């Protein structure tokens, strides 16, 4: 592994402090992506802070947030992020068919406004563009703040997935949701 956390017990005081901050926060542990960025404690702390805001302080319902996060994971191809958040999506009541339609990028099994989240995130991640029609659909259905939060998710989770990839910590996407 060319970047990432050193073996246990070999962290610098700065790395250990960031590790402990994350572990004592609302996550209750240090998720794998943050180990991949601990070579830069300052960046790790800032990046995890954005994630904490996304996960615990946004205006979206848990369901909408997990749809957006799973879409970002699927669009980028991050099996780790997909599996982590797919379990949360199940807890939010997403059916197997709904989750499969997030994984395949269509959102076909979701209500139209929720499907707009999926197609918007896929376009943002795969085509590097913010589809204005889908953005308008989300803003109308869920509000401008939620549309802004979905846009942040579309950028943030690929960043985590890139660290997972760079640290050789990611896994392949499943063919179907578990």
What overall form do the CA principal axes indicate? Answer: globular
Total beta strands: 0
Low-confidence spans: none
- Return Rg in Å: 16 Å
Mean pLDDT: 95
Structural features, described:
The longest helix is centred in the last third of the chain and has 23 residues, at 144-166. By secondary structure, the chain is mainly alpha-helical. The chain is globular, with a radius of gyration of 16 Å. It has helices spanning 13-23, 32-35, 41-56, 62-76, 79-91, 96-103, 112-127, 132-142, 144-166.
Key descriptive features of the protein:
mainly alpha; single chain; 66% helix; 0% strand; 178 residues
Short summary of the structure?
This protein has helices at residues 13-23, 32-35, 41-56, 62-76, 79-91, 96-103, 112-127, 132-142, 144-166.
Secondary structure elements and pairings:
Elements: H1 13-23, H2 32-35, H3 41-56, H4 62-76, H5 79-91, H6 96-103, H7 112-127, H8 132-142, H9 144-166
